[in-house]
Amino acid sequence: MLTIRSLFFFLVSGALVHGAPQQRSRNGNGRGGNTASQTPQQQAAALPQGISQATDGSTILDTTATVNGVDLRFKVSAPANLFTTLTNVTGARARPNSASQAGLNVLLHGDGGQSFFDFPNQAVQGGLLGVVILAPSENLLWGQRAGPPSGLSRNDGAADSLAVRDLIRDVLPQVVAFDPANVFFTGVSGGALTLSGFFMPAHLAEFAGTGVLLMCGALAPQVPVVDAEAFIGNTKIHFQSTKDELVSLQASIPEAIVAFEDVAAGAGLNAQQIGQLQTVDNTPNSGHCEFDELGFVSGIQLIADNFANIMQGGDGAVQGIDAPTVLTSVVGNENLQFAAARKREVSDSLLM
């Protein structure tokens, strides 16, 4: 649980430390200084928190809260007037625990934390405020708090998922005014594994009627599915991958597709209903997360920029992906066609 003391500390001291985080390289190292002896978590902690400006001119607050005994660093991107008066954000007008018409798009980054520092879902899109959370892990891995990357294994997935749930329910209402019934989720690679394997089955019923975008990664549920009937018939799930995906994910993504399709069928949805809610695409002829067929970071940004068109009732056409739409029904398309496995520069043990 979040303590009153920790909440007061992060809202007062964290919000007053100005300066945007430095850009990090893909391997997780910050710029400047000798960081060879530091863990990725220690390197991240050295980067300043505080207040900066989002790409749309709105405000980004970068701060930390203690949730369930672990420190969760997170960023919120919102118009200044939607931040609560507890945050000391200039222009903040909202009362703590007050609602607004804005929803949230909560992103869990891939292994190493690149998308936390890039914050691809910043700015307000489709009426959603951007939120990104840093994994409470020495190597910045969602679902694995200690030790080096270990591929699909996410032994702390349940604990991390509960912490994310509690951050949204208990902490964010003290930070920003939003509609708690309009919370979407995005997972990137390792973050997508934790979302699909643990968060969705355990907690998605509490956020029903919205959607989850799984980029370049997915796991079948690793814990029991709770109250499936509450979310499986009204919540959008989109699986986005590429032709030359990592070998381990070429197996786990189709397994996850089948698993969630089976949950829907078990709840009484027919094929047409399932296909409207659960969609998949791996059109890009490129590697892991390279949806624009150019690069990891730019590929993720492409999908993040098209979130509303994919997840909020759009036609799924993404300029940069050579397909009329990415919103292909999972029904009959569970067995994705990938390129022949070959040696890759990026190890399957580090999913990014």
Compute the number of helices.
10
At CATH level 3, the topology is Rossmann fold
Tell me the structural class: alpha/beta
Spatial order of strands in the largest sheet:
1-2-3-5-4-6-7-8-9-10
Can you say what the CATH homologous superfamily is? Answer: Alpha/Beta hydrolase fold, catalytic domain
How is the biggest beta sheet arranged? Answer: 10 strands, mixed
Q: Please give the CATH class.
A: Alpha Beta
Following the backbone from N to C, one meets helices and strands in this order, namely HHEEEEHEHEHEHEHHEHHE
Mean pLDDT: 89
Shape: globular
**CATH architecture call:** 3-Layer(aba) Sandwich
Share in helix: 25-40%
In angstroms, what is the radius of gyration? 19 Å
Counting DSSP E segments of at least 2 residues, the number of strands comes to 10
List low-confidence stretches: 1-33, 342-347
Strand content: 15-25%
Report the end-to-end length measured between terminal Cα atoms: 29 Å
Number of domains: 1
Descriptive account of the structure:
The chain has 352 residues and is of the alpha/beta class. It has one domain (4-20, 40-329): Rossmann fold. Helix content is 28%, strand content 16%. The protein has helices spanning 4-12, 40-45, 114-118, 157-175, 190-203, 228-231, 247-266, 271-277, 296-305, 307-311; strands spanning 50-53, 59-67, 70-78, 103-108, 128-133, 183-188, 211-215, 236-240, 278-281, 328-329. Helix 4 (157-175) packs across helix 5 (190-203). The protein is globular. This is Cyclin-like f-box protein.
